[in-house]
């Protein structure tokens, strides 16, 4: 049995490596756990491997707020010190310390 350890933590602010968005981690899957339809919609030359952590993000870009599902290989830590403006952040998280949010309660 292979065990995977997530690189990023709940509440941590991250950026996408290739696309212009950032977000706060609110859940982690130890490996891909979305639909095959979603996976197949990614261009084949850009598809991440499935056996790595995938992160659920409250994401934002210049135009909108949304929920993103991103592989660990496509994320980097965000060191901007800027909070994420997604409107759902206050429902899940508390104080922002410049790189991460504290959790209001433990998520499963």
How would you characterize this protein structure?
This protein has helices at 36-40, 89-92, and strands at residues 13-16, 22-29, 54-60, 65-71, 75-77, 93-96, 101-103. It has 108 residues and is mostly beta strands. The radius of gyration is 14 Å and the shape is globular.
Largest sheet: 5 strands, antiparallel
Radius of gyration: 14 Å
The whole-number mean of residue pLDDT values reads 93
Distance between the termini: 22 Å
Strand tally is: 7
Care to give the gist of this entry?
This protein has 108 residues and is mainly beta. 8% of the residues lie in helices and 33% in strands. Strands 4-3-2-1-5 form a five-stranded antiparallel beta sheet, with no helix packed on it. The chain has a two-stranded antiparallel ribbon with strand order 6-7.
Descriptive key words:
two-stranded antiparallel ribbon, 7 strands, mainly beta, 2 helices
Write the layout of secondary structure elements.
Blueprint lengths: L12 E4 L5 E8 L6 H5 L13 E7 L4 E7 L3 E3 L11 H4 E4 L4 E3 L5
Antiparallel strand pairs: 1-2, 1-5, 2-3, 3-4, 6-7
